[in-house]
């Protein structure tokens, strides 16, 4: 039984400016497959290798796989569909599988436009994929697939075609039992430009207990689970010593949620002497940095070098729209604390909603000058079609070409400006911010790792700008303010959108939020769940029985229950 995993050849001009990122999904799935006894697993990274359709067809034809699997986020869905179409053309008898967050919730549309996809894996793939392989290996795939939890497929009943979604599979409870096969990757390809070293993307936890309206990760992973910190460090130590990784970014939505385990993780890295060999970065929330002020020296000692903060918006109104619990003043304080402790800090702004104006964009720039982050990133609002915020703004969304849902293309059209002006003003913010940093900040940022890292980030920006890859500027024809009226985003207007299917998908954080809303909707804080951080019990993950019990207790206790329901 030969299994072929393929990372689709998709590029957007976003995160790629920092280097080539290793597809962690392939390593985690390959580890599960081999643990189940299937050793013949091959991986093609068509994205990093820029493998075109003809070359991909040739490789698939030569490999003759029995099963071909790929994954997709929303902007890469068409490339993923095309990848499996090529596989089916070259190996008609092969089973074609598609996973990832987009296919999980948009499976009806995906199967309708790509009927050559034999099955969609909905949710975490490790356990589901093994069951799919066993069902296919039996030679009775069509008979046995209906018993496999967590998949969707096209079936024909009495001559009528219908799309079937089986019962959702449970989430992977034993994360410590997952043993990724990182050796499936060709590590010399995955270079992180800022430090000129190999980069990895392991994860310490899955899911998020918070329900930010613009985010899909909490909904996809459903419940929040944390690995044993020592197991995570075991994995990182192997990556460092065997695969020569010099920098990693934790893939977690917010690795500092469980402070106790995050501290244990840092202490374990220090105990093994790993900060001398590897530096790392995280995404986290402003509130966590404020909470952990006294722990920041420990975090830096453990090798934490880059923190990306979701400061999000210029106006508090937008923070409220996104269900963020932070206040604008908190952002400046968090940035000051990180810089004081020698940690490079990046401020992220979401721009491009319908109420965006030239003034609000200018305000974000003024905030960077006041807050003084080391790095700044302006991301175009991208309305994932399976998020609560999309449902609220759906009547204002005009573009359904998912390939452009990439954080660098203006999907929404602000009322007060056209998309070309929006792009131009964002680029103006980038030009001013990094011009000042290049002249007056980075060269004088000390003599150690911090200075080296910042100059490396500048190199990555300059390289992407020179190659016209940053923000896809070359593809859209942007050459500066004089070209803003001629920019062409090449939207495929023939693309339409079906409704997402989320009703059969239970996310514990969402259930808890609904229970709280029933009690006192005014007090709900969807992202963060309250003024305090999760307790150790909550951070370990909560089963549905406990959740139901808490909801029932809350209903009886009335408003007093808010103090006890920080799920």
Automatic annotation (TrEMBL):
Entry-linked Pfam families: B12-binding, Radical_SAM
Keyword Transport: no
All copies of domain Radical SAM core, residue ranges: 189-421
PANTHER family per the UniProt record, alphabetical: ANAEROBIC MAGNESIUM-PROTOPORPHYRIN IX MONOMETHYL ESTER CYCLASE, ANAEROBIC MAGNESIUM-PROTOPORPHYRIN IX MONOMETHYL ESTER CYCLASE-RELATED
The protein's required cofactors: [4Fe-4S] cluster
Residue ranges of every copy of the B12-binding domain listed in the record: 9-143
Classification lineage: Bacteria, Pseudomonadati, Pseudomonadota, Alphaproteobacteria, Hyphomicrobiales
NCBIfam families reported in the protein's UniProt record: BchE (TIGR02026)
GO cellular component terms given for this protein: cytosol
Alphabetical UniProt keywords: Iron, Iron-sulfur, Metal-binding, S-adenosyl-L-methionine
InterPro entries in UniProt: BchE-like, Cobalamin-bd, Elp3/MiaA/NifB-like_rSAM, Methyltransferase_Class_B, rSAM, rSAM_horseshoe, rSAM_sf
Entry's Gene Ontology molecular function annotations: 4 iron, 4 sulfur cluster binding; catalytic activity; cobalamin binding; metal ion binding
Protein name: Magnesium-protoporphyrin IX monomethyl ester anaerobic oxidative cyclase
Top-rank lineage group of the source organism: Bacteria
Species assigned in the record: Rhodoblastus sphagnicola
């Amino acid at each position: 039984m030969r299994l072929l995993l393929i990372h689709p050849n998709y590029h957007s001009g976003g995160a790629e400016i920092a280097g080539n990122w290793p597809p962690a999904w392939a390593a985690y799935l390959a580890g599960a497959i081999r643990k189940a006894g299937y050793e013949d697993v091959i991986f093609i990274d068509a994205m990093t290798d820029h493998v075109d359709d003809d070359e991909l067809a040739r490789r698939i034809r030569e490999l003759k796989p029995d099963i071909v699997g790929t994954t997709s986020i929303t902007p890469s869905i068409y490339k993923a569909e095309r990848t499996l179409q090529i596989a089916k053309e070259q190996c008609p008898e092969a089973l074609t599988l598609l996973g990832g967050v987009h296919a999980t919730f948009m499976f009806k549309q995906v199967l309708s436009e790509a009927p050559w996809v034999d099955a969609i894996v909905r949710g975490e793939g490790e356990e589901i994929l093994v069951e799919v392989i066993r069902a296919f290996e039996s030679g009775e795939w069509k008979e046995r697939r209906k018993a496999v939890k967590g998949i969707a497929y096209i079936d024909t009943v009495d001559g009528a075609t219908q799309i079937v979604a089986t019962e959702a599979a449970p989430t992977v409870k034993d994360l410590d039992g997952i043993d990724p096969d990182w050796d499936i990757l060709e590590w010399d390809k995955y270079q992180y430009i800022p430090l000129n070293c190999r980069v990895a993307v392991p994860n310490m936890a899955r899911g998020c207990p918070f329900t930010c309206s613009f985010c899909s990760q909490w909904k996809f992973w459903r419940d929040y689970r944390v690995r044993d910190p020592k197991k995570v460090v075991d994995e990182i130590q192997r990556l460092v010593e065997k695969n020569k990784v010099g920098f990693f970014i934790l893939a977690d939505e917010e690795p500092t949620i469980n402070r106790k385990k995050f501290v244990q993780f840092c202490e374990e890295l220090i105990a093994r002497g790993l900060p001398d060999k590897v530096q790392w970065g995280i995404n986290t929330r402003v509130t966590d940095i404020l909470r952990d002020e006294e722990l920041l020296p420990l975090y830096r000692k453990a090798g934490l070098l880059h923190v990306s903060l979701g400061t999000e918006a210029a106006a508090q109104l937008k923070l409220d729209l996104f269900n963020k619990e932070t206040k604008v003043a908190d952002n400046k304080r968090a940035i000051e604390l990180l810089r004081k402790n020698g940690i490079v800090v990046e401020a992220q702004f979401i721009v491009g909603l319908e109420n965006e104006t030239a003034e609000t964009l200018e305000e974000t720039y003024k905030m960077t000058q006041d807050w003084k982050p080391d790095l700044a990133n302006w991301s175009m609002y991208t309305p994932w079609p399976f998020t609560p915020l999309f449902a609220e703004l759906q009547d204002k969304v005009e573009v359904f070409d998912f390939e452009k849902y990439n954080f660098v293309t203006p999907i929404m059209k602000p009322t007060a400006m056209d998309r070309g002006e929006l792009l131009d003003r964002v680029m103006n913010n980038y030009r001013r911010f990094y011009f000042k940093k290049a002249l007056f900040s980075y060269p004088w940022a000390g003599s150690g790792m911090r200075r080296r890292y910042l100059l490396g980030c500048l190199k990555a920006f300059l390289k992407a700008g020179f190659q016209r890859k940053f923000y896809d500027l070359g593809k859209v024809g942007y050459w500066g303010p004089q070209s803003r009226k001629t920019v062409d985003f090449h939207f495929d207007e023939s693309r339409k959108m079906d409704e997402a299917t989320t009703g059969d998908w239970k996310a514990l954080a969402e259930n808890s939020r609904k229970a709280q809303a029933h009690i006192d909707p005014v007090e709900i804080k969807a992202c963060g769940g309250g003024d305090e951080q999760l307790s150790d019990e909550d951070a370990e993950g909560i089963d549905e029985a406990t959740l139901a019990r808490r909801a029932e207790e809350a209903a009886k206790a009335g408003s007093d229950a808010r103090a006890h329901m920080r799920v």
